């Protein structure tokens, strides 16, 4: 409990409530799902070969394959339907480059998002004081978002090719005994693709997360803060030029000679036409 309290007092965990920190945690979590579902995959399919000589038949031939999907290295023994002889058959295709690229991006994204989240929690003040760190964070975020898009697209295409190469109907065509019309070949079951399909989904979700986080990281850079200061200074300057003219009570001198600025003690120029002007004149 003391260690947890010390960490809580040192770290600023409130940053995890902000989009900048919260999205980093999601990136870290989704990267784990991406490389775990792809890198930890193992699949199996089964085919059967029925020869004219029943003793030579094999009704269940298991074929196992796994990450990184170098299928040309995957082999199995199939009956030749000739005097109990068996043949070694290899699958076709090499899809390791796309799969390994996808997993590599996922692992590096996992490590970077973890380091970034820890840095936000414990060193947020130093992160904002140094203008270079937000810029580096911004550039890395842009690069990872692009790499997630490329690797996920490449892996999605490779996965469709893996499905074709491991289709039991396609594998049967590789068995020499199945090319003889007197023999019968069939498929028992194919591989399950739910795990690999999920890896592709997590790949594109990671792209969305990293691309969406570009804006929140950009707001911490000096580029955004500098443009904000320029925008604020321009609006203040524009507001300063708009000033009201001072109101002067005596400035309204249109036709009619309206003026209220005169002294009240001065005699009024207003007099009735033909009327008495003083008390002595009346007398």
From TrEMBL:
GO CC, any one term: synaptic vesicle membrane
Protein name per the record: Synaptoporin
Originating species: Kryptolebias marmoratus (Mangrove killifish)
Family, similarity comment: Belongs to the synaptophysin/synaptobrevin family.
Domain MARVEL: 15-222
Source species, domain of life: Eukaryota
Record-annotated membrane-spanning stretches: 21-42, 101-123, 135-156, 200-218
Bilayer topology term: Multi-pass membrane protein
Start and end residues of each stretch annotated as Disordered: 253-283
Organism taxonomic ancestry: Eukaryota, Metazoa, Chordata, Craniata, Vertebrata
Pfam families assigned to the protein according to its UniProt record, in alphabetical order: MARVEL
Keywords: Glycoprotein, Membrane, Transmembrane, Transmembrane helix
InterPro entries hit by this protein: Marvel, Synaptophysin/porin
Record PANTHER family: SYNAPTOPHYSIN, SYNAPTOPORIN
Cellular location(s): Membrane
């Amino acid at each position: 409990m003391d260690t947890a309290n010390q960490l809580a007092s040192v770290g600023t965990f409130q940053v995890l409530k902000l989009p900048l920190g919260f999205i980093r945690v999601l990136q870290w979590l989704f990267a784990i799902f991406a490389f775990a579902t792809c890198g930890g995959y193992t699949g199996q399919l089964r085919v059967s070969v029925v020869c004219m000589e029943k003793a030579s038949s094999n009704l269940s031939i298991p074929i196992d394959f796994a990450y990184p999907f170098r299928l040309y290295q995957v082999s199995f023994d199939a009956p030749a339907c000739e005097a109990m002889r068996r043949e070694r058959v290899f699958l076709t295709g090499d899809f390791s480059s796309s799969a390994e690229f996808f997993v590599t991006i996922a692992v590096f994204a996992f490590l970077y998002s973890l380091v970034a989240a820890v840095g936000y929690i414990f060193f947020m003040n130093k992160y904002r004081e140094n203008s270079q760190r937000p810029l580096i964070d911004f550039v890395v975020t842009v690069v990872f978002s692009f790499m997630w898009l490329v690797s996920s697209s490449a892996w999605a295409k490779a996965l469709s090719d893996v499905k074709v190469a491991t289709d039991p109907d396609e594998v049967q065509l590789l068995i020499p005994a199945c090319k003889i019309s007197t023999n019968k070949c069939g498929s028992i079951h194919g591989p399950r693709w739910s795990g690999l399909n999920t890896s592709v989904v997590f790949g594109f979700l990671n792209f969305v997360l990293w691309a969406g986080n570009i804006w929140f990281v950009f707001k911490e850079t000096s580029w955004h803060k500098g443009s904000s200061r320029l925008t604020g200074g321009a609006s203040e300057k524009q507001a300063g030029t708009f000033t009201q003219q001072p109101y002067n009570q005596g400035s309204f001198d249109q036709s009619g000679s309206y003026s209220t600025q005169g002294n009240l003690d001065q005699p009024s120029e207003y007099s009735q036409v033909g009327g008495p002007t003083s008390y002595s004149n009346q007398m």
